[in-house]
Amino acid sequence: MARFLAFLVLLASLATAAAWYSQQPESLWARKTASDVPDDEWLDHIYSQNPRDAETAEQEVRELGPRVLPTIQAVLRDQRADDKARKAALKACVVLEQTAAPAVPEVAAQLGNPDLTEEAALALSFMGPEAFGPLREALRSEDPIVRREALRSIGKLRARAPLDSHAVIPLLIQGMEDADKDVRTVAATYLGILHDAPESAVPALVQGLSDEHIEVRRASARALGSFEHDIEPAIPALRRAARDPDQDLAREAGLALIKARDR
Question: How far apart are CA 246 and CA 149, in angstroms?
Answer without folding.
Answer: 27
